[in-house]
């Protein structure tokens, strides 16, 4: 990627000379020059080179970084609390100005620290401040002295690189690696150890839409937003496409309420089958936004916006109602669908009234609770210290709802955790299923999961089954339930009926082929 700041005018000769002289690498030459001066009997010159000049330069550089540090302290870094946005912009503005006068460049990074909220739930809120302070110290250690690290949000910190010759993506990614490594080191607080992840959004001066603190920070925020969608430890650099995506996010955020009211947020359904008999064992409800202008949007395009707008509960309710309606529709059409799976996010699970709301809704539709499988992510089982989540899940399970453990294998749930949660079925993540017919290592892992589940008397479902070869292999390995594009893609409710009828027709044809006289 091209570096440099096209909008920056070339600085004057004097400024350039000054900036050359104040570079630290000149100082490395002083001992050599001093030795030469000493050899030629110029002791006074040697003294100047060894002591006076370095001290003056250090004072100058120190003065600049101290000035910046003082500015930071005034704006609240010392309090450990997040710093006001306007002040952050001012700090970045100062660095940009320095870059422009020295023909240098720089970069801004917004670093989102994830999983600190887990600590929040278990250890109390003040621990967040201590954890962030520690992380800021760690990050400072892996950067150069004049670089700036400040807390830009509750779980967010900003890094502004001091003026430098190169700040292209190669250079910045190197720094990002160091920052992420520093953050991911185990964090010991109050006698407990935790590991946190970080997502990073980058904007270099060359990438920024304008050479200002406001523009650089906004662009790094955009990049961070997209990085966060990709999950743990993702990093994204700003580009105009990212800006367009973020603009769509903003547009969607302003339309959520209207979409919920108009019924535009509703599920598509993906079948789950019994690999041995071919029978339908259920459908998973997968949220879709039927947007009047943008078409059908997938969760990756809107889930983050729904969550950050605080509308998870409303969306969950819309999906639940539509799923219960779907069960009734299948019943009326005479299609045997034992259960529908609904995905519950962490936000929904931390609502103390979640279980009662689901129970009430299912009762209102006059459906048996065992016809609803609630899908929780493996990472949720690590929150077993959270009373609200545990109460919601226990209530639902005791009431007769089924519990599916989603994306199994991607988190860090132990056998003990799974057993404690009373899970009915493990959904083995797609990453283990994809290509397992060709990879013995993968087969071994899936085999181990299957036998573990059998020992615990838990059902299993393979997610993301795409090819007949995978399906065949899973059948031979004894995985009872299958879901994936190879069986069918998610589809609108109307299409599920045709799909199911076609399927039972094929099954009937198959039976007729096997017993032709029976159909005479
Ligand atoms: P998930 O719960 O793991 O859902 C399975 C995802 O894998 C779905 O993506 C599905 O379309 C996709 N998939 C299924 N079979 C295959 C396959 O064979 N190959 C490939 N490549 N993909 C396959 P989708 O619909 O985009 O949903 C993505 C995620 O969004 C879901 O992952 C789930 O975590 C979340 N989500 C979807 N609907 C809801 C909802 O109503 N509420 C909440 N909280 N989350 C939802
Ligand atoms: Ca799921
Ligand atoms: Ca899944």
Features:
five-stranded mixed sheet, disordered C terminus, eight-stranded mixed barrel, binds calcium ion, 16 strands, 520 residues, binds ligand C2E
Radius of gyration using CA atoms only: 30 Å
Please give the order of strands in the largest beta sheet.
8-9-11-12-13-14-15-16
Number of helices: 20
Number-wise, the strands total: 16
Averaged pLDDT: 84
What oligomeric state is this?
single chain
**Each distinct ligand:** ligand C2E, calcium ion
Largest beta-sheet characterization = 8 strands, mixed, barrel
Q: Estimate the strand proportion.
A: 15-25%
What is the end-to-end distance? 73 Å
Alpha-beta content class? alpha/beta
Shape: elongated
Low-pLDDT segments: 1-12, 14-27, 57-67, 72-78, 514-520
Which percent bin holds the helix content? Answer: 40-55%
């Amino acid at each position: 990627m091209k570096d440099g700041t096209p909008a920056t005018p070339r600085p004057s000769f004097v400024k350039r000379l000054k900036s050359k002289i104040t570079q630290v690498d000149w100082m490395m030459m002083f001992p050599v020059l001093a030795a030469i001066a000493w050899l030629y009997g110029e002791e006074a010159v040697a003294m100047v080179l060894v002591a006076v000049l370095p001290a003056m330069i250090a004072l100058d550089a120190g003065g600049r970084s101290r000035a910046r540090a003082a500015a930071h302290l005034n704006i609240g870094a010392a309090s450990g609390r997040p710093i006001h946005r306007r002040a952050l912009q001012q700090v970045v503005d100062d660095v940009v100005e320095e870059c422009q006068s020295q023909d240098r460049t720089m970069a801004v990074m917004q670093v989102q620290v994830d999983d600190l909220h887990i600590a929040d739930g278990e250890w109390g809120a003040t621990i967040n401040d201590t954890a962030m302070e520690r992380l800021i110290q760690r990050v400072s250690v892996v950067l150069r002295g004049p670089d700036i690290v400040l807390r830009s949000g509750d779980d967010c910190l900003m890094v502004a690189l001091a003026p430098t010759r190169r700040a292209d993506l190669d250079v910045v990614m190197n720094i990002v690696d160091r920052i992420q490594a520093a953050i991911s080191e185990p964090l010991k607080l109050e006698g407990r150890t935790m590991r946190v992840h970080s997502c990073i959004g980058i904007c270099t001066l060359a990438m920024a839409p304008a050479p200002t603190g406001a523009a650089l920070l906004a662009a790094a925020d955009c990049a961070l937003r997209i990085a966060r969608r990709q999950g743990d430890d993702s990093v994204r650099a700003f580009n105009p496409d990212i800006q367009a995506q973020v603009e769509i996010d903003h547009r969607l955020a302003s339309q959520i309420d209207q979409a919920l009211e108009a019924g535009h947020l509703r599920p598509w359904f993906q079948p789950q089958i019994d690999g041995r008999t071919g029978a339908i064992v259920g459908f998973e409800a997968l949220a879709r936004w039927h947007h009047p202008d943008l078409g059908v949007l997938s969760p990756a395009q809107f889930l983050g916006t729904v969550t950050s707008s605080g509308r998870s509960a409303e969306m969950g309710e819309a999906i639940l109602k539509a799923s219960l309606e779907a069960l009734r529709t299948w019943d009326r059409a005479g299609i045997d669908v034992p259960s529908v799976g609904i995905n519950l996010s962490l936000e929904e699970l931390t609502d103390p009234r979640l279980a009662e709301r689901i129970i009430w809704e299912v009762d209102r539709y006059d459906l048996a609770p065992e016809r609803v499988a609630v899908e929780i992510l493996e990472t949720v089982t690590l929150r077993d210290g959270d009373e609200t989540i545990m109460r919601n899940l226990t209530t639902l399970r005791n009431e007769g709802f089924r519990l599916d453990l989603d994306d199994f294998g991607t988190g860090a749930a132990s056998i003990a955790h799974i057993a404690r949660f009373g899970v009915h079925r493990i959904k083995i993540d797609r990453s283990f299923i994809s290509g397992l017919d060709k990879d013995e290592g993968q087969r071994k892992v899936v085999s181990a999961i299957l036998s573990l589940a059998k020992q615990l008397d838990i059902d299993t479902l393979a997610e993301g089954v795409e090819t007949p070869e995978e399906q065949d292999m899973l059948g031979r390995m004894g995985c009872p339930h299958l879901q994936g594009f190879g069986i069918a893609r998610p589809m609108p409710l109307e299409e599920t009926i045709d799909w199911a009828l076609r399927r039972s027709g094929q099954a009937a044809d198959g039976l007729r082929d096997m017993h032709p006289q029976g159909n005479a």
